[in-house]
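FAQ: What does the model actually see?

It sees only this:
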Amino acid sequence: MYHELSFYDRCWEMPWEETKEYIRSGHESTDDYDKTSFRTITLDEEKGIKGIVGCKKGHYEENKCTTSMHIISYLFAKEKGWTMSDAQAWFDNVKK
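And it is asked to produce this:
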């Protein structure tokens, strides 16, 4: 029987990344999203958490998403003290 994985489970399948400024959560495949719809939004400025959002293909018209934007990945600002293990623990807690 086929079981579709949740967003959070799919994110654990993709590699987590670390740059000079951010830790990026594992992410959903971007293949199903309109590439011109991607945006970075602030989720918690004090904690330094951002989200990369996008609109599913076929639902982005005239620079507007006709359904709802979906979080594809999270960004955790290292300047706010985030470590890879802290970000992964936060992510695990959110998925519950």
